[in-house]
Amino acid sequence: MSILTAYSSLAPQQRRSLGFLSVIGLFFWISITTLLPTLPTYIKELGGSRSQIGLVMGSFAIGLLCSRTLLGYLADTKSRKLVLSIGVIVAGISPVGYLLIQSVFPLILVRAIHGVSIAAFTTAYSALVVDLSPMKQRGELIGYMSLVTPIGMSIGPALGGFLQEIWGYPALFISSASFGLLGLFLLGPIPEKPQFNQQQKANISGESRNFKQMLLSRSLGIPALILLMIGLLFGSLITFLPLFLEETELGFSAGWFYTTAAIASFSSRMFSGSISDRYGRGPLITISLLCYFVSMIFLTQATGGQQVLIAAIFEGIGAGTLLPTIIALISDRSSGYERGRVYSVCLGGFDIGNALAGPLVGSLGSSLNYQTIFTISSSFAFIGFLLFISQSNASFKKSLSFALGKEKDLYAFDD
Fold first, then answer.
1. Which CATH architecture best describes the domain 11-185+197-403?
2. What is the pTM of this model?
3. How confident is the model over 363-383, as pLDDT tens digits?
């Protein structure tokens, strides 16, 4: 089913709401990704060492981690739009902090606050998309609505690199802030499901799992562990890839890497959602984890721009397939009463990995070359792959069958 066909089957209000959400998402991801290829070099210009760069970049995920639990609870019990607004406002204000504070260690706090924007936005955005999507089209619409991420990532890094090169860091940070705040003006027309009545509020406590139960359950704990592995990989990549490409002079900039990955991610998201609705989430998650592994292997062997290009393509396919599919998976495995908190638990795995990657690998930076760093990153993807094929369902046999598309998800809810 094409995008136009999928959206034409929805009610007019659903189409309008998803349309506004997608534009907000596009502005948000442009704001965030303008800084991907430029912030590590900015910290380096301020005098930051490898370990300090890793510490600042990793603190972004500390803000994510510390805020997700509360934001997930607010999204479930108060308002998805309130949490989305928090994400947009923080994305708009934080870049000003980079501009005003030109010292390495105070930037840790600014970067941590900036991380709250991702926690708020991704939790509320995903929950609103699922709220507005018919169950039979859930994976497909999640995939289509997630297209704003690669589109934003194809524009943001290239735009950020251009702004920094032509007009310098002040123009870069002001532009990032402006894109962040633009989405705030589009929130009004987006409706929410009616607030829970008193009986439903009582059911939230009675029917929903608490955070400990979610983490200890195989149905949600394993996706969280897999996202932890990918968070470790991604955190290492965004911290050290710009430095690797700058120092080795392979003729391929970090901005072009992210743009290439975004194009590949866009292409995979066009089809992964409808395929996962038809054939199951398992095969796509399996393939995506292998794509991440292959991407890192190409970076370890990179001696020129061609290998970096191939690595970017595989990384983009991995991200474009894994993230929307695993969000669909955990949506299948949760009720509407607890979905915000489920996202906070599972996506929190990615946050922890992202938070640990920069400082952990950065602390070893003086004793490791970049190829070794990317080899370590490839092992994270492979561990995630092994976890998924062996632990994603009720037993090893059923997990393997689910991962290969031969078994239905035994943990999926009926509604």
1. Up-down Bundle (1.20)
2. 0.76
3. 665 567 788 888 888 999 999
